[in-house]
Amino acid sequence: SAKEEGRNRFCTFEPQFYAQFESELENLTSLREGLSKDQFTVHFQPRINARTEKIETLEALVRWQHPRRGLVLPSEFIPLCEKSGLIVELGAKVLRQALKFLQQMKKAGHQSRISVNVSQRQLQEPDFHAFVRAELEKHGCCGSELELELTETLVVDSGEIIRNNLTEVRALGVTIAIDDFGTGYSNFARLSEMAVDYIKIDRSLVMGLPANAGLIQAIIAMCKVMKAAIVAEGIETREIADQMIELGAEELQGYYFGRPVAPEEILTRLEKDGNGRRPCCM
Ligand code: C2E
Ligand code: MG
Ligand code: MG
Ligand code: MG
């Protein structure tokens, strides 16, 4: 019976489950250690204006400089950070590093917006907006130089606190982008009520070109109803870049235009190519 099964499940020692639990605890311990020892760094990937092909925005992507494992990518640690709540602390560090780099760029005479990925847990903190405002001020940046990337489910299913945070940061001039668009369950009715500046079409859709051009066209048509600008993610070839421009993408991002790299490398690139944004505030 189910009852017996249930009882058996509780009584039987599952080494596999225990091992998993144990390694999660170990990972949590090393994450905490990594945070306290400042082992997290931020790389930046350019987002290009489709018309001028100049850098418009730089996306901050966190990396873990692990003492033994080397450079660890976010898919390896973000899920546990979100589950444990450590993402609030990590996210704060990422925002600070991103704004610090923005300040440094401006001093070197370059202008670019910075975009930062934000998790649900961060936006559920009632004073998230106050933190953003304080950090902008501390680094001499104005709101319009910062963009926050959120997933579509986060925006659509958000409660009062999240909605308030979004309203408050938008009042500072901060722009909002929906990340990985086309991979979640889109409630277009709800989504169209939200004020969104950019929609980033997910790499999995973009990489399906040219076969799914019709699908992307339909998605773009819906995005235009929301008055959001279109960004295409995951562009790896010139052909796909051209197809996305043809389909109406305003901005392009992907390995073809540049991989995520350390801040110094971005500065070198900006020295060579310049960038397309007008100066905002200094
Ligand atoms: P995302 O925000 O959608 O970022 C795009 C990911 O796709 C990045 O992976 C980037 O390196 C990769 N990518 C960009 N262009 C291409 C391309 O042309 N081809 C391919 N194959 N990949 C490309 P990354 O850096 O490993 O980040 C993965 C995800 O981790 C991000 O997806 C984002 O959701 C999350 N993440 C990264 N940094 C942060 C952070 O500071 N906070 C939070 N909450 N999440 C973060
Ligand atoms: Mg992103
Ligand atoms: Mg994305
Ligand atoms: Mg993506």
Automatic annotation (TrEMBL):
In what residue span(s) does the EAL domain sit?
24-274
Q: List the protein's name.
A: Diguanylate cyclase/phosphodiesterase
Q: Which residues of the complete protein does this chain represent?
A: 418 to 699 of 699
